[in-house]
Amino acid sequence: MKLIIVGAGEVGFHIAHRLSQENKEVVVVDKNPEALRRLMEFSDVQTLEGSGSDPRILQAAGIHEAQTFLAVTDADETNLIASFYANILAPRIKKLARIRNEAYTHFQPGLLEKHLNLDKIINPDEELVHTIERLIAVPDAEDVRELAEGRIQLVAVRLHAGSPLKGKSLIDLGRMADGLPYIIGAVFRNETLIVPTGKDVLRAGDLLYVVSDKDHMNKVLAFFGCREKSPENIFIIGGGDIGLRLARRLENRALHVRMLEKDRARCDRLSEVLHRTIVLHGDGTDQTILMEENIAHMDLVVSLTGDEETNILCSLLAQRLGARRLITRISKFAYMPIAQAIGLGRVVNPRLSAINSILQYVRRGKILSAVSLRGEEAEVLEAEAMDHSPIVGRPLKDVGFPKGALVLAVVRGEKPSIATGHTVILPGDRVVVLCARKAVPQVEKRLSVPVRRP
Amino acid sequence: MMPWGFVWRAVGALLWCVGGTMILPLGFSLAYGDGAHGSIAKSMGVAAAAGAVLFLPSRKGGSSLIGHREGILIVALGWIGAAVLGALPFYLAGTFSTFTDAFFESMSGFTTTGASVLTDIEKVPRGLLLWRGLTHWLGGMGIIVLSLAILPFLGVGGMQLYKAEVPSPVPDKLRPRIKDTASVLWKVYLLFTVAETALLMTGGMDLFDALCHTFATLATGGFSTRNASVGHYQSAYVDGVIVLFMLVAGINFSLHYQWLTGKPLALWRDPECRFFLFATAVFIVLCAGSLYGTVFHTVAGAFRYAAFQVVSILTTTGFATADYETWPPLTQVILFLCMFLGGSAGSTGGGIKCLRIILLIKHGYRELMRLVHPHAVSQVKLGGRVVPAEVLHSVWGFFILYVALFVVFSLLMAAMGLDMVTAFSSVAATIGNIGPGFGAVGPAENYAGLPLLAKWLLSLSMLLGRLEIYTVIVLLIPEFWRP
After folding, report:
1. Residue B369's CB: how many other CB atoms inside 10 A?
2. Section B60-66 average pLDDT
3. Which helix (H) or strand (E) covers residue A193, if one does?
């Protein structure tokens, strides 16, 4: 399978690297030779120097023999023109474009998709707002993912030192849970992945990926020591495009939102378009204003300015002033590990959100969807069970899945159910499997869906 | 520290690859019943054992993500290992009395130099002669490129390995994946091999001779199966076919891939290829002019021998159809200069390479322009594209190292008591991967009479030339080994 990626910025770079690791033929086009050189040293891809909006370059990149085209530069206009020419040169191939400006996407919904033949428009801001919303819905979660159109949820919860579940094995846990449908898909202990078995014992500080269906999730989370109540008072620092988008969504859900913005003119504009949100003028790194607004009693503080250093400072300051729940926006990948180290557990990254949704879309084939957890250490795949697949027709405990892989859930028709050792998969079921990265090829083989090999 | 696990694993796998190719000479040896099959089979056994010793214990150790340093190390160690392995069949069969000679011959084969220490080639068992040709063929396109095409696990850090072996300041990537690039190059190479073998057989050679000469031509090696080299055949047709394919081998294989896949003008559009063909034509005309009336008395004869010898030396092949040491001084000097020029970047030829010479000339001219217009903004361009400054720097660095090594090695050769012509030409002919030089190492003589130490020195010189200096010499810098 051949893909053409326009743009070797952070989004293009990571997508190219991930796809080349999956043995796909990747050609990356960018104007910046330095970025291309860096990519070439790091990954097994072909690079082409030039503008992605230049049809000659697209032709030279071999767009005729490609199956997928991704326009992911930081500039909307370049992506649009690149998609425009891609559509003329190769109308049939799958096309995705990263477009941020609402003026382009919201003028008439679906207009661009139709005229440029785009399969999907990825808006990093929108993806980020989605990510934040999912995190808000589950206040104690460090990560929330959805599969099977949201019927199955994966929620990452940290086990605190005071938790009654500490020191218990998964078998004990199963007894205590008293029939709640859940499964622990993965445990991250000191950032290393453990695909758990019944005998594994939980320790304080473990990050558990808990899987359940949407209806039971709240009860399951309560069992794991998470508050059921979702936050009501939310404090947003930074009134940029993303902040505004988020505030609007939260307003619709009748939550109490306060928003702090440094720029006076922007504040005027914000107060004009927002109705129930309290717009405050001031700097997020200013301790007085945070105390004045009683930040310690906020359910959630979200730092969303365009500057990641500021966001980190704001979050640390808010934490020091007593705020218990924080979400911090960081765009630079290099800062992500530092953020974990200084105690900012919940970090959102617009580029990472965009990368995840692009990858999820690119991979779509017989694998219905895939999400990667914690920097690619593990993947959750969703696939349809084939007639001849070796996993079909036997209780799961007899199937003999490869090491590092775990069946999490089965969706039959519309009905999701959490997998146990007695679950029997039938042909046509959608199976959700977690696998450590090393086990991915074997799992794909079991599912008989060799889509990753071209 | 270095992830030695992966380095050893890769080198072990390389040795397996090289050992595996010995199946071909083994087959010929058995078919001809020349008695060399024992030594070849034993060498294969050694290859399997050595490969296993390196490969198996480090199977799980080390990460598979490799950087520049590991890439360089794998390539350099792989080549040295291949040369040692390649020497075994000769040594075990008793073709040479010393391991030095066997190693020299093998290194000369893999680096496509074609400098021989065999005094009577025609007496050597045919299986071994085929192996001698095959070392050329493997080394021509590159043993690393071959393994990239067939060993999947090398793919991860493939670009580092590829860059360290492919003789070009700016290696091309023809396909998105390095594995596909490598296999495309080998397919093109294989295609030309089949074509030339067929054409030579049409001219009356048997399969064995045709195959050996094809291996030596396309790799720009120069090992013949005859004592008188290609001159043995006294056939204008054979000369013509070999000249044509030497030229083919002296051109960037990326361009061959392009014209073979439907871009017929690719060769002409490439500035380096134009320069290479133009230089060849000019040198042929000059040589022919100088030969006509002095050595040859027909225009056709002068052109035939001039063309063969110029192309043979310029592409760094080193075949001979005449003893050019008896030719007029002008032709000798031209041939000596051709040794430095060499083929195109990305070809199987050696030398400094046309691309670098073009860039050096252009850069020199730019400096002159700046004297006239101190404020002019001018960049070195090639084929309408700006050449990045770091490429120019690396070309200058290469040129300086090339000349410096030539000087130092010549001095060392002279210190071993060799005369000036021999000292200079033997180093020029080995670092440029040509083969025959002048004086005691001329086309009518060979390297057998040199002192033992000189053979080792020239073996190193050949390896430096083939891996384009940087890959080998960087290993001698202490900084390279610092964690």
Report:
1. 12
2. 55
3. strand A192-194
Give chain A's length: 454
| Residue found by looking up tokens 């109705």 in the block | A275
Do B159 and A41 count as a contact with CB atoms less than 8 A apart? yes
Q: Which two tokens stand for residue A81?
A: 């023109």
Q: Is A5 on the interface with B (CB under 8 A)?
A: no
**Per-window interface: B 55-74 vs A, CB < 8 A:** none
Relative to beta strand A94-98, strand A68-71 is parallel
Best of B68, B151, B162, B177 to substitute, by most chain A Cβ atoms within 10 angstroms, is: B177
Can you read off the two tokens belonging to residue B296? Answer: 């040859």
Question: How far apart (Å, rounded) are the C-alpha atoms in residues A52 and B247?
Answer: 37
Per-residue pLDDT of B114-147, as tens digits, reads: 999 998 898 899 999 999 999 999 999 998 888 8
Residue type, A273: V
Strand partners, A328: A303, A347
pLDDT category at B253 given cuts 50, 70, 90 is very high
Give Cβ neighbours of residue A245 (< 8 Å, ≥ 6 apart).
A125, A126, A129
Question: Which residues are CB-contacts of A149 (< 8 A; sequence separation ≥ 6)?
Answer: none
Tell me which chain A residues have a C-beta less than 8 angstroms from the C-beta of B160: 41
Q: Which residues pair with A430 in a beta bridge?
A: A384, A411
What are the φ and ψ backbone dihedral angles of B151, each rounded to 5 degrees? Answer: -100, 110
Three-class SS state of B397: helix
To the nearest whole percent, how much of chain A has pLDDT over 70? 95
Residue of A nearest to B180 (CA): A25
d(CA A89, CA A83): 10
End-to-end CA gap in chain B: 5
Which band of pLDDT confidence, cut at 50, 70 and 90, is reported for residue A142? confident
ipTM value, please give it.
0.75
Chain A residue with Cα closest to B176: A46
Asked if B216 contacts B319 with a C-beta cutoff of 8 angstroms, the reply is yes
**A25: closest CA of chain B, how far (Å):** 5
Interface membership of B269 toward A (CB under 8 Å):
no
Q: Please state whether beta strands A2-6 and A25-30 pair in parallel, antiparallel, or not at all (unpaired).
A: parallel
Q: A18 CA to chain B: closest CA distance, Å?
A: 12
Contact A23 B158 (CB under 8 A): no
Q: Is the predicted pLDDT of residue A120 greater than 60, yes or no?
A: yes
- Calpha distance B353→B427 (Å, rounded): 17
Least Cα distance to A78 among A97, A93, A91, A92 occurs for A97
In sequence order, which residues have a C-beta less than 8 Å from that of residue A10 and are 6 or more positions away? Answer: A331, A332, A333, A351
Smallest CA-to-CA distance from B393 within B358, B360, B344, B366 is with B360
State which H helix or E strand residue A384 sits in. Answer: strand A378-384
Contact B155 A44 (CB under 8 A): yes
Q: Report the SS3 class of residue A230.
A: coil
Binned at pLDDT 50, 70 and 90, residue A334 comes out as confident
Taking the C-alpha atoms of B28, B29, B32 and B34 in order, what is their torsion angle to the nearest 10 degrees?
160
Helices (H), ranges, A190-332: 217-223, 241-252, 264-273, 287-292, 308-320
In whole angstroms, what separates CA A433 from the centre of its chain?
A: 17
Q: What is the DSSP string of B328-363?
A: -HHHHHHHHHHHHH-S-TTSS--SS-HHHHHHHHHH
Nearest CA among B447, B448, B452, B451 for reference residue B437: B447
Do the bridges between strand A256-261 and strand A278-281 make them parallel or antiparallel, or are there none, so unpaired? parallel
Q: From B16, B153, B26, select the one nearest B78 (Cα to Cα).
A: B16
Distance between CA atoms of residues B82 and B18, nearest Å: 7
Q: Write phi, then psi, for A178 (nearest 5 degrees).
A: 55, 55
